[in-house]
Design brief:
The protein is mainly alpha-helical. 81% of the residues lie in helices and 0% in strands. The chain contains 24 helices and no strands. The longest helix has 35 residues.
Amino acid sequence: MLKALIATRMHALGAALTPQSSRRRRNLAVTILLLLLIVYSSVTVVFLFYITDQALCAPLYAQGLGWLYWAISALAAGAINCIMTMFLAEHQLFLARDNELLLALPIPPKDILFSRMCPLIATNYAVSLLTLAPAALVYGQQSGFSGAQALGLLLAAVTLPLFCLALSCLAGWGLAMLESRTKQKNKSLIVVLVSVAFLGIYFAIVSTANRLLSYLLVAGAQAAAGVKMWCAPLYWFGLAGEGNLAAALGIAALNLAVFGLVYFCLAKNFIRIATMHRGAAKVQYHEQAAARIPAGKALWKNQLRHFGAAPGWILNGALGSLFAVAAGVMLLVRRDFLMEVFRQMPASLPLSLLLAAVLGFCFAITLISAAAISLEAKTLWILQSCPVTGGQVLYGMAALQLTITLPAAVLAPILGGIGLGLGAGQTVALLLCVAAYAVLTALLGVWCNVKLPKFDWMSETQAVKSSMSTIVSMLLDMGILLLCGGAYALLALLGNVPDVAFLLGCAAAFVLVGAALWHWAAHKGAQEFARL
């Protein structure tokens, strides 16, 4: 039975990476495109770590601190593993929808738990490979590997993902407990706040990465003393990479022991954890007259309630708008610093166009409407059977995204225009261009979701993050920005191009394409929606 459970979980992981059409037949072209994106992302991550490892390895090795290099590599791999799998562990282990169904079968809870851990283990090993392989390549180029070094590093690296998974499971358990003790209406807010806090910590670390690297290169001995004193496991990992087999066996035993202890504790308490529903709100019916509202407004309010109750949708779909507003605020607060950055750019673009490109990127990654139909899934028939047209439903889904993006599309250009010292005409043209682009991305997301719906998702986050409709929508949004950049470069070759005229021209083009999508939604789009 355990083998069957593991095979089912791994099949689900593979299905998430190779999407299916609505007829359950694999679309070869879509699968190839997705695999190419995965390969591209993997190569990019490997390259970034390779560049960073090159900057660290030679100076530390010259100071006789090769073990510190491996300790830093292990810390980076462990942190990325924990961050990536913490929320996955919460949903796949403790909040899975079929937990109670499986517990009703004659299956030991420990087998259910381990089968659910297997996809997480596979994810951790993939991340560890992408982060530690460049480190090993750089170290091999620097000094080569002896047999003892290779064996020690292998023992430490193979068991590191298990230690990271144990920490992720504990964090996921804590989040699940927090959600179970939180009122239903506050759960989304709690999840969003926790996620944004982790995101803020991540950006804080990234922003200080150069200073941390400089400190390590200048004061490597002091950093090494701190690691030895306060973090012995990292020191053991570093010694394992240097060929100390005793340290390698010690860190491997520690990793396995921590994983085994966490697995034992979770297995013992899995039934209680998987069946807790303390946060469920008690509903009491109160008879009252229902207010009559237009169909379009009712559809919009329904979508807004769904959006507010789906933290995965909020985090993966709406952060771009938050980034846009943050960019405008940063231009006010850190104007001098950002102006210096803009001056160092090789391209002599007007500041208004640079800001338009930055804000356009933020709205290109705001993918709310591109997942709205997919998230309906089993309840889609309710919308299709309501006395409303398909066009009204599609307009409601576009209106949901515009509720989030339009305020940001108005506020960010105004703040950015003030921060950059743009004239009134430039600011107005920038605002019109960004707002028109925000409307276009909302309608384009609906178009993509009608063409490429995903109804076989296991969690709402999967429907938002890994569905082809969101990926294609983001690529098309980026493609529009690239077309605008290419058009400006071509016009610049022919002569001087006023930035205000160019922004207004782009806004007009966005309005025309948006009008075509609006007409499509009312006619052909409505017909295609009815056939889903």
